[in-house]
């Protein structure tokens, strides 16, 4: 199955090559002009990805929009209708929206507070020979199973973890798991690498001569930081905050494992509605709303980023 | 500052280290280490459900990553040749594939596939000559397809960034020297983008291998490794999960290190 597309691709290139030979020999057997041929090859190259995007992105999205205006069938699932009842009912899941819209930005902000010094250290302070290793050590956890990493905290915060150790020093009945704090901790732990990387990249690009010039002109380190370093790293900060916030809006695993059904996100409500209560139209309405929220956050982030980029240019010139 | 950074690294790695440590614990008790033992690895490896889940995960991750690498690279090459407007549409769709939360992708794919199957299956039954018409269901195919969406977008992004950093002059020089487009592609372009394709493949594999939420919706009756681990966590924490988790960690660690090695010329994220 997997070798088939590559076969097609290479035969397509062979075709392209043979077509070229044909035109070189000026035997105008082929009716295709070079322009048409070029377009056909382009179309062939993007065809599989287009099909994928259409069938597994556009079509499903249309499906949930249609479903969100429908009704729940008596036995669960979907029944055709045109009603705004599902959207009117969104308030019944207000707690999930509230948790998500409060904890996602807070989590993102705490991530930023922890990530910035690390990114600064990696980009400015550390000696180049260790830099690659230390940067890799930040990236690696992000690509290792979030499920396993979150489970590790479940283990640490659970009754046999830290609370058990606290009993030895006389502090009893501490509950850490299934609290908003546990969810926040899991969020910071899970998404810290994603926050560090863009900030690191923007700080690494920073022109060191600006810092030297600032120091030569008698600025204190702190005013150099707030006057030069911080403003120039804002695009990275914006990218990190936007990425982490957007991913957090759709988070399911962290609240599920560390919030234990007490601190739940929109993602948890969606799983419940689709797999347990089988209320597909209401679930679709929530999913559509979630996508709208994500798009709004993205647009706001892009707008701020654009403004930041604009002021940065003014500052530099 | 140094102390703070050290603390952050400890924060990142202590939980992982604890899971690995306790996977070698002789006793069942999660809070005290009673001796070194590999018994939980033996238990995990002889667990047929677990091995089946692992096999499913490997097949799904390999197939979807291979599809993503091939189609994603083709798309990256093709998009270079598109007009600005069409390219913007593709850019937007690929960005959407990455930005839309996995839980929504899972739900939307589930809903769409159930509808499409509900339409196709009766039609297939009507025209099928035999007694047992084929029936489309959720399973390998739907997980591979849904993972392929995200990973294809990922590969396209990585390969496109690599193509953008290539000098056009060497390609032009090649064609000036009468190389056919195919020769230019094979001898000039492909060798230069190959590391990024491989890196994209490995990241795609890692994503698919680690993904829980999309597979949770579209897996049907199939079980992938993350789904199995999730179910075991719900049943209760046992050292066996630590052993499985350690093996998963080592597998994804190896893959990401290879991917980073392949992308080492580039300093950007991912």
UniProtKB/TrEMBL annotation, chain B:
One BP term from GO: transmembrane transport
Gene3D superfamilies, per the entry: MetI-like
Membrane topology summary: Multi-pass membrane protein
PROSITE patterns named among the record's database cross-references: ABC_TM1 (PS50928)
Spans traversing the lipid bilayer: 54-77, 89-120, 140-159, 188-207, 213-231, 243-263
One Pfam family in the UniProt entry: BPD_transp_1
Domain ABC transmembrane type-1: 54-259
An annotated GO cellular component: plasma membrane
Domain of life: Bacteria
Stored InterPro entries: Bact_Polyamine_Transport (IPR051789), MetI-like (IPR000515), MetI-like_sf (IPR035906)
Primary localization: membrane
This protein's name: ABC transporter permease
Originating species: Rhizobium altiplani
